[in-house]
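User: Need the bound-state model for zinc ion:
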Amino acid sequence: MKTLTAKMVRQLEAQLKTQRAAMLEAARAELVRGEEQSYATYAGEVPDVGDQAAAALMVDFDNEIARRHGVAMRNIEDALKRIKEPYFGVCIDCGDDIGIERLTVFPTAIRCVTCQGMREKTYAHGAIPTL
Ligand SMILES: [Zn+2]
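Assistant: Bound-state model below.
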């Protein structure tokens, strides 16, 4: 019982890719501001930043993007992988369809509304220590 059509899946995939691009864009813009500040301080002391240092900086840069946006980016990457699979759009807890309405709002959703709600309740309850 698969209610998602190929067209819906393609739309969701496009949506996820747009989200990923927007997130990378935002992450870069945010990092560039930070790097400019730290670079200005640093450049006064070391005027010659060689290729090696620049390369190292780029690696740091990518790591920093991954770190700051790690969870959200990973969710999107995972969803983009899952979208190729036959079980995409199926709740990982109960096996029911997540539903196109929910997926359109949250393409990264892995649970149906009911299971997500139960999980959040469980979490909220578990977070309060019982004495
Ligand atoms: Zn479910």
